[in-house]
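How a chain folds remains the central question behind the approach discussed here. In the encoding step, the backbone of a single protein was reduced to a row of integers, each denoting a local shape. We regard such an encoding as a compact summary of how the chain folds. The sequence in question and its structure tokens are set out directly beneath this paragraph:

___
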Amino acid sequence: MWGLVRILGLVAVCAAPLSALAQDYPGKPIRFVVPFPPGGPSDIISRVVGQKMQELLGQLIIIDNRAGAGGVLGTDNVAKSEPDGYSIALASAGALAISSSLQEKMLYDPLKDLAPITLVAKVPELLVASTKVPAANLKELIALAKAKPGTINYGSTGPGSMPHLAGELLRISAQIDIVHVPYRGAAPAINDLVGHQVQIMFLDVPVLLPQIQAGAIKALAVGGRLRVPSLPDLPTMNELGYPQIEADNWYGLVAAARTPQPIIAKLNAAAVAAMKTSEVQEKLAPQGAMLIGGSPEEFADYIRSEIAKWSKVVQAAGIKVN
């Protein structure tokens, strides 16, 4: 009996510091790492959600853009930070689910070196084409590719990126011969699409929307499961008979592994509450971002499922990144 009392007493003593830690947190500014340059989807999402989290937590949140290696460098910076909740990152699908299948030596293990907080948003990939491509829809594009194999080039933001893998999904699923042309980012890729140097590509909604609305490029399909509010007449791949072509670029909040659970819970509560506000939803809706939320456990399960999904695509396509 006395042994049980002692064990319960030790549990209470150990739990007390964690409880106090959560109550005192945050006691100083939080560094919010964005693993991409300013102005992109992840940067916009981070600033909007981070601003509301700042209000809810009552502490300054400082955006820190650390671009490089498709989001891996910024994510690695947080993975190697102190596990105290004062460094968090909005990591992408590439950094959490795709890169581990492509690189022989990853800087971190997404499932061991990071603590999931919540899945924040999904941004569908759009399939778009140059205005000179003689195809008004997906069916005509596939027919054109089959009639002229190897003549259609598709751009991407780099080997192993979500736009690259989405293009490979299209190539495999439609059984067409299209040629990958990698770029170092979205801007040069879009410039060459507008200039007709490449014929098609997948990219995030907010990056493409201005060019679509200006008539500089044409949209053929949505890579996600749902239609995009800003382009309500554009059908999804599922509607067009290709449910296997599902490419959402998603972003989730993470901290360093071993960050105390009470702090993770507090960050999760603030992030989820921020995403539920009409202010945040109204600001991000035009960007094509679908806010998700959910528990750390649900996010961890989602990361595992995405790693499994994209590793199969990488293997089927034979993609290798040096």
Summary: The beta strands are 30-34, 61-65, 87-92, 114-130, 152-156, 178-182, 200-204, 217-222, 248-256, 290-291. The chain is about 45% helix and 20% strand. The mean pLDDT is 90. The domain at 124-222 is CATH 3.40.190.10 (D-Maltodextrin-Binding Protein; domain 2).
